[in-house]
Amino acid sequence: MMHFNPKKYQNIDKSTQVLVDEKNLFSLLTIENNTTENQYFIHKTKLNYIQLFFSLKTPTKVAFNMEHCAIQLQKNESGMVYFNEDETNILFDMPENSQVIVMLIPVQYFHSLFTSEENYLLNFDNFVIGKPIIETRSTTPAQQVVLHQITNNPDNSPLDNLFLKAKAYELFSLYFSNLEDSNNENCPFISNEDTVSQLKKAKDFMIENMADPPSLEELAKIVGLNIKKLKQGFKEVYGTPVFTFLLNYKLEYSKKLLLENKLNVNEIGNKVGYSTSSHFIAAFKRKFGITPKQFTKQNNA
Q1: What's the pLDDT score for residue 188?
Q2: Residue 182: pLDDT band with limits 50, 70, 90
Q3: pLDDT tens-digit profile of 227-259?
Q4: Of the candidates 235, 147, 245, 139, the residue with the CA atom closest to the CA atom of residue 188
Q5: What is the DSSP string of the chain?
Q6: What is the arrangement of strands in the sheet containing 60-64, beginning at the earlier edge strand?
Q7: Distance set, CA 44 to CA 72, 79, 85, 170 (Å)
Q8: DSSP-assigned beta bridge partners for residue 38
Q9: Tens digit of pLDDT for each residue in 89-113?
Q10: Which of 84, 98, 177, 226 is most buried, by the most CB atoms less than 10 A from its CB?
């Protein structure tokens, strides 16, 4: 029996990005509504899943088969849902400027990750006897860091998928661990949302000034952090030191400029901050294994 209006909900594929899809293990999705109106999406599961939801921006409602059977997630709240059913309609009520990270873990694989002597789970016995579980909780600072890394992964390299898998397992572990009281020890440099905002400001400033970037000391003063917090926090959030991030960004950006075919190699090198074209060519080849000219030739053939 259907307990919702199917015409109201769009297929989730229109708004979702599958970050990781490990067959028979887990899936990691990000769902966004970047419009100025409420959007309604449906995702139909075909397996018996443990479902984790993390709301990142604005309050979001997630319902299951029936619109009144729902959880309301505030910003920086998470929810765990389990029904002993092989098929579930997950209904997302997404307000403007909202984003949710979703982890779907088949219950058989979930059980394989825990032994009877090492359970950290709230109401774990319910999984055994098939009772439904619906719970919400605040995301911890450590979880927020991992979520930020997942949604702001800048690398786009062949190792991108491996990075996201590792972060998915880290997020899973943090959710089910009973170490919430020691989060400050686990993540001493990202203590609150303001720090993450300052680190984002640092990232944006470096990108805007890639041709003539400030020193770490200057950047720390600009964003209002001490150097230790800047260095350690930036690596926690973006996965690399400040100038490694900038180098990767500049070279990825140079690829985009080469594909546009509006500037020559010298002009592009100068635009991304290289004093000579030879330095730019050498850095590009170290990163991608071919020269800018070879890259252009391959992609304009």
Answers
A1: 41
A2: very low
A3: 988 988 887 777 788 999 899 899 999 998 998
A4: 235
A5: --BS-GGG-EEGGGTEEEEEEETTTEEEEEEEE-SSS-EEEEEEE-S-EEEEEEE-SS-EEEEESEEEEEEEEPTTEEEEEE-S-S-EEEEEEE-TTEEEEEEEEEHHHHHHT--TTS---TTHHHHHHT--EEEEEEPPHHHHHHHHHHHT----STTHHHHHHHHHHHHHHHHH-S-GGGHHHHSSS--SHHHHHHHHHHHHHHHHTTTSPPPHHHHHHHHT--HHHHHHHHHHHHSS-HHHHHHHHHHHHHHHHHHHT-S-HHHHHHHTT-SSHHHHHHHHHHHHSS-HHHHHHHHT-
A6: 10-11, 39-45, 88-94, 60-64, 66-73
A7: 19, 18, 12, 26
A8: none
A9: 888 888 988 999 999 888 777 766 6
A10: 98
Instruction: Tell me which amino acid residue 117 is.
Output: E
Token representation of residue 201: 């400001």
* Mean pLDDT of all residues in 267-288: 92
Cβ atoms 67, 3 nearer than 8 A: yes
Identify whether the C-beta of residue 56 lies closer than 8 Å to the C-beta of residue 76.
yes
Nearest alpha-carbon partner for 51 in 32, 27, 73, 30: 27
Residue pair 3/65 in contact by the 8 Å Cβ criterion: yes
Reference 176, options 84, 91, 111; nearest CA is 111
Torsion angle in degrees (nearest 10) through CA of 57, 58, 63, 69: 130
Select the more confidently predicted residue: 76 or 21: 76
What is the pTM assigned to this prediction?
Answer: 0.55
Contacts of 195 (CB under 8 A, 6+ apart): 189, 225, 229, 233
Tokens of 188: 């001493």
